[in-house]
Amino acid sequence: MAGRILKTPSAPPAIGPYSVAVEAAGLVFLSGQVALVPEGGREDGDVSAQTRQVMNNIGAMLDDIGLGYSDIVKTTIFMVDIGDYSAINEVYAGYFEAGPPARSAVEVSALPGGFQVEIEIVAARSGG
Q: Does pTM surpass 0.70?
């Protein structure tokens, strides 16, 4: 593997054969996150509650590796209902004080565990 697997103790456990966080060439890739609660369990509320849980998990994981939301350069949002686009945007926007990162948002037929939203990110280390 060309990248280095990062330890993210704040992350919910992986639910498949993948690394949660990998760094390569100054870029940090976080695997798609669903609304799992790190202490166990899941957020089964509406899409806004699930988006909040996902974004909080991402923030905690970034903190584990010395980064923050301002270091995110790209996100991809997967949602099972494009009608949730506005609700997801409303929550998502609250996590970026300056300009938000580049982003893609797509509707998918289903997500693991029956979740309504999944978000993956790419972050960059300063000078990376």
A: yes
